[in-house]
Write a structure and sequence with these properties.
Rossmann fold; 11 helices
Length: 288
């Protein structure tokens, strides 16, 4: 069974009304609660762009592009003017400008960045999405804006970057920050936070596999890591309440050329703006 996070007060919480609704659905039928949970699991929260991201948002050239493989469109952000481009991929309920501090430092070092609002995120349309749509968006963006030297992904974006490399994304190096790892663990933790019995996570996996005709474990980050030849920097915080540090450690163990950098006290999001983390990223990029 999924265990509580080490610092639950800083973890994303599921609203009480959703938890109550889930329990009512569970009382009525297993099929109903599975469908309800699947809907919640695939529905990100769209946050307003915070003031700290206004500069990147206003200075970026925005373009809506169509991703034919998933029949959805996403908003892209071209930030900077260099031909040396780095792809940035946000996590669940994030935005294309969320990695702005990293982007600003990259601009100072002669790069430009391409980022995007994944389907159902930020300025992109839609209400629901799944990781395979993140991956499809990455591969389409490479066609239109690539080639990229580096890709940097946070959380689900990290998992998506690794899977996109496995599926053909051509890079020299990759960096993942606070990345999830095993899909079943993610489902277990989600069901735990909903306050439902752990058996539902099995039902949820079967539901997604039948609906999308995929094997969920094929998207686990460690599996993609096993097929990656390029150098990958894995950054994770020991106190991450959203994604346990064991995820980053396990991913790194499965990489052929992995570099693990662990931090303390930065959690899941503060890590994106930490100067020591950003310096580590720049040093890794510059290292020949």
């Amino acid at each position: 069974m999924a265990k509580k996070t080490t610092n639950p007060t800083k973890s994303l919480k599921i609203p009480a009304i959703i938890k109550v609704s889930a329990k009512i659905c569970a009382f009525i039928s297993t099929k109903l609660v599975t469908k309800f949970a699947a809907r919640i699991f695939t529905t990100p929260i769209k946050h307003k762009v915070p003031k700290r991201e206004f500069e990147m948002d206003s200075k970026s050239i925005k373009k809506m592009i169509y991703v034919p493989s998933v029949d959805k469109s996403v908003v892209t952000y071209l930030y900077g003017h260099s031909d040396r481009r780095i792809l940035l991929v946000h996590g669940w309920s994030g935005r294309g400008t969320q990695l702005f501090k990293i982007a600003d430092e990259l601009l100072q070092n002669g790069y430009s960045t391409i980022s995007f609002d994944a389907p159902a995120h930020g300025k992109s349309e839609g209400k629901t999405t799944i990781m395979s749509e993140f991956i499809a968006s990455i591969l389409e963006i490479e066609k239109q804006f690539g080639p990229f030297e580096i890709a940097i992904g946070h959380s689900l974006g990290g998992m998506s970057v690794l899977n996109a490399i496995k599926d053909g994304l051509n890079l020299k190096k990759a960096i993942i920050i606070g990345s999830g790892d095993i899909v079943q663990d993610i489902l277990d933790e989600f069901v735990f936070k909903l306050g439902l019995k752990n058996e539902l996570s099995h039902n949820l996996r079967i539901f997604f596999e039948n609906k999308y005709q995929v094997k969920m474990d094929d998207f686990s980050a460690y599996r993609a890591a096993q097929k990656i030849e390029i150098p990958v920097l894995v950054i994770h915080d020991n106190d991450d309440p959203e994604v346990p540090v064991k995820a980053g450690i396990h991913i790194n163990e499965n990489l052929k050329d992995g570099n693990l950098f662990l931090t303390d006290g930065l959690g899941h999001r503060k890590i994106l703006g930490n100067q020591n983390v950003i310096k580590k990223i720049i040093d890794f990029i510059k290292k020949s």
